[in-house]
Specification:
Elements: E1 3-9, H1 13-24, E2 31-37, H2 43-47, H3 49-53, E3 58-61, H4 67-77, E4 83-86, E5 91-93, H5 97-107, E6 111-121, E7 126-129, E8 136-138, H6 140-150, E9 160-163, H7 175-184, H8 188-194, E10 204-216, H9 222-225, H10 227-243, H11 245-260, H12 264-284
Parallel strand pairs: 1-2, 1-4, 2-3, 6-10
Antiparallel strand pairs: 4-9, 5-10, 6-7, 6-9, 8-10
């Protein structure tokens, strides 16, 4: 399977070079690397020139700053891979990222994306994110619950790889949110995940317990520099997802179908372990 690694960038020449190196150094060889550059100077072009001149990467220079979301779209529109890996210009991936993740798509034909554990690195320390000691298979409702209530899946697609037909970037939004989303990318990124589930009854996502993604924290990061706008966009987008009547109807139908397929004895066991046992340990044992 061919993998397209998309690297959208904006005025980060040194970081972009590191991201490109981590893409080109993959142990998995069937790849293409696409850089879409929003920069207002030639620094990124100059630092990547050796790779550009030898056709090791596809380099796209935008005549104006088209913003993060349309920069992602520009990368995608010039890609041809069966799988899509978006690698933000300030992040890195392990050299075996693709060798480990790609076989999951062959093993699970209904897998829409694969997510890895993350190390968030800043000048003070490394922090573990989105990690469990085991692999998980998630359907739409599981993923949405993790996203909203447990915060154990990423809002950013930077630690995931997608099947091409499941990868959608939405560029039209509620007029109240449009400018903020297009300026920061917040909300547009999490919708890439949620829109990957086109068939709620069959599509799955897989979380694997390998630290293959590195998110670099720095002061110029949009999520830090504009954190209030970012938080607002995420909250509004997720609220719209949950309150959308059509979505709620589809969720209800999906849950109903799921419930009808579970034998009564399994319900008894599930209810006991989730409710009675939990009550006993929290109340009686105390």
């Amino acid at each position: 399977m061919k993998v397209s690694i998309l690297i959208p960038t904006y005025n980060r020449p040194v970081a972009t070079l590191a991201a490109v190196d981590s893409a080109l150094n993959q142990s998995y060889s069937n790849i293409e690397v696409i850089v879409s550059d929003n920069s207002f100077n030639d620094l990124t072009y100059n630092i990547l020139y050796e790779y550009i001149s030898k056709c090791r990467i596809i380099y796209l220079r935008n005549s104006t700053n088209i913003g993060p979301v349309f920069n992602w779209i520009n990368c995608f529109n010039h890609s041809s891979g069966d799988l899509i890996k978006i690698l933000f210009s300030d992040d890195l991936i392990d050299k075996d990222y693709l060798s480990i993740t790609v076989p999951y798509f062959e093993k699970f034909p209904n897998a829409t994306f694969i997510s890895t554990s993350v190390i968030r690195r800043d000048k003070f320390s490394d922090t573990v994110l989105y990690h469990k000691e085991y692999s998980e298979i998630l359907k739409y409702e599981d993923y949405l619950n993790e996203l909203i209530f447990f915060k154990n899946v990423s809002y950013s697609p930077g630690n995931s790889i997608f099947r091409r037909q499941s990868f959608q970037i939405i560029s039209s939004y509620d007029i109240e949110l449009k400018d903020s989303i297009l300026e920061t990318g917040a909300g547009a990124d999490v919708l890439i995940y949620l829109n990957a589930f086109s068939d709620y009854s069959k599509d799955i996502a897989i979380k694997i317990p390998f630290f293959l993604s590195i998110f670099n924290g720095h002061e110029e990061s949009i999520s830090l520099a504009k954190w209030e706008t970012v938080a607002y966009c995420y909250n509004r987008v997720l609220l719209d997802q949950v309150s959308n009547s059509d979505l709620r109807l589809r969720q209800k139908n999906y849950l109903k179908a799921k419930i009808l397929n579970i034998p009564l004895w399994k319900y008894m066991v599930i209810y006991f372990f989730k409710h009675i046992r939990g009550f006993y340990y929290l109340v009686v044992k105390r």
